[in-house]
Structure formats: C-alpha cells, structure tokens
Amino acid sequence: MDRFENTGQPDWDWWGRLWPTPGETLRKLGVESGDALAEVGCGNGYFALPAARVVDPATVYACDLDESLLAECSSLADRQGVENVETVHGDARQLSELLPELVDVVLLANAFHGVEDRDALVREVAASLRPGGRFVVVNWRDRPREETTVAGEPRGPPTDLRVSADETAVRSAGGFSLERQVDLPPYHYGLAFEL
Q: Best exposed site among 25, 52, 110, 161 by fewest CB in 10 Å?
C-alpha cells in the first residue's frame, strides 16, 4: 500500500493558516448534519474532526494508510470530546470494502493531485456512496508552486502535479454530476459531485 504521490501530513500550524475554519469550508461544500462521511487520507484529523461536529450525530470514518496518524486522530478526538469519529486503516483504493456502511459523502482534501489512476478511485468512491451521495474534492489551484506560499515558503504539490477544476471533473468514471464549485482562497478550490 503506497501513498498517493506527493501527499503527506502537513504541519498543523501552517495547515491552520490555509484553513482557519475547516468546518465552515465543509459547510460551503454542502456537508451538513446527518451526513455519514468518509474522509480519504484523513491524516491526523484536521478535516475529520471538524467534519464530525458538522455531521453530528452521523459518523465520520477517518481513513488513512498511516496508523500513527490515525492514532493521533483518535487521541485528538478523545481530548476534544468528539465521539462520532471512527478511524479506518487501509488503502482508499479499496474504500468500499473498508467502510462498514455506505456513506453520504466521501471527502478527498489536498490529495487528488497524487492519485495515479483517478478513474479507478472515482469508481471506488461511487461504490462507497448511497444513492444521491456526494464526492467532495478540495484541490490546490493549478498555479506554479512558487506562487503558493505559506509562512514565506512554497507549499503544496509540485507544479506539474497540479490539476485544474476541469481536469478534476469525475463525471465519466463514476456517473457523477457537478453539484457545486467553491472558491477557497488563497490557493484552493472545492468541487462537490453528486451521484
């Protein structure tokens, strides 16, 4: 099980500079109370924990390959009193086999650029969703890396891995239609696709 190319867990401090209100970002993308949600590549929970507050009382399945990051996510959930997060260890390319139930939303934040076989992942996401479910993708803008700085340093994936919103379209592989596109300044966009 290999990580998606050029993805990893960023420092929590600079992550917060990009996403000071991750829960609000999720709401803009259509995530709401009662949505069972799976986050692919959740890391230590920067989006999964706020998602749990947004979707409460539904469950957030925090999925990652890195067991140490999942342990950190669980520990943070305990310290913050978040009770509706379940960690799931495994490869997103088998997401439908990993989840104990179909979900309303699958979230993929800051990792789509590293997915080698996007069509296969999109089909797996579709197989993990309830009818009418949504695939939410948060992505770095297709701009040179040297233009996307955080705390004075270039951040994000290499320029050649970045994809535009049009290139992120997942309609053909999974039967999705674009529900909404959201500008997420300073360096991201979000797309919500409906099954």
A: 161
DSSP for residue 110: S
* Whole-number Cα distances in Å, 75 to 38, 81, 110, 150: 18, 10, 23, 27
Report the amino acid identity of residue 169: A
The two beta strands, 85-89 and 37-40, are unpaired
Q: Using pLDDT thresholds of 50, 70 and 90, give the confidence band for residue 148.
A: very high
Taking the alpha carbons at both ends of the chain, their separation in whole angstroms is 27
Spatial strand order in the sheet of 60-64: 85-89, 60-64, 37-40, 103-109, 129-140, 188-194, 177-184
Which of 26, 5, 38, 190 has its CA nearest to residue 127? 38
| Mean pLDDT for all residues in the chain | 91
Model confidence at 167, pLDDT cuts 50, 70, 90, reads: confident
- Give the Å distances, CA to CA, from 148 to 18, 140, 157, 160: 10, 9, 10, 14
Peptide bond connecting 186 to the previous residue in cis, omega within 30 degrees of 0: yes
Predicted confidence (pLDDT) per residue in 12-27, tens digit: 676 777 888 999 999 9
Neighbours of 173 (CB within 10 A): 17
